[in-house]
Amino acid sequence: MKSLANKESEIYFDCGSRVKEIRKDLKLSVGEFIELINYSSEKNWLEIEKGKKELGISFLEKIHQITGASLDWLKYGKPKQSISNLRAFKFSL
């Protein structure tokens, strides 16, 4: 029951355009990106990127940890994201 409670209390954000921007900056396919962050459904991910679904904070934190993208930018779009960290990550792939 603990995992169900965590899922219900997770906070979600409308951040599809920003996570798509990161994925494209890294030149990763949807399949490659969701594998990187351990997201289970390509179909659901595409809905997130289109702005039809929201993404939970736990995945935003994974994206932040893996890519160095600002968590505030991922959640709110502010402040403007610098892609220098993303470029450093891209070269480590």
Topology:
Blueprint: H1 2-9, E1 12-13, H2 16-25, H3 30-37, H4 42-49, E2 55-56, H5 57-67, H6 71-76, H7 84-92
Antiparallel strand pairs: 1-2
Structure description:
The protein is mostly helical. It has one domain (12-77): 434 Repressor (Amino-terminal Domain) (Orthogonal Bundle). 65% of the residues lie in helices and 4% in strands. The longest helix is centred in the middle third of the chain and has 11 residues, at 57-67. Residues 1-6 have low confidence and may be disordered.
User: N-to-C terminal Cα separation, in Å?
Assistant: 37 Å
Structurally, the number of domains stands at 1
The strand order across the widest sheet is 1-2
What profile does the largest beta sheet have? 2 strands, antiparallel
Quickly describe the structure:
This protein is mainly α. It is 65% helix and 4% strand.
How would you describe this structure in keywords?
mainly alpha; two-stranded antiparallel ribbon; about 90 residues; 7 helices; disordered N terminus; 434 Repressor (Amino-terminal Domain); about 65% helix
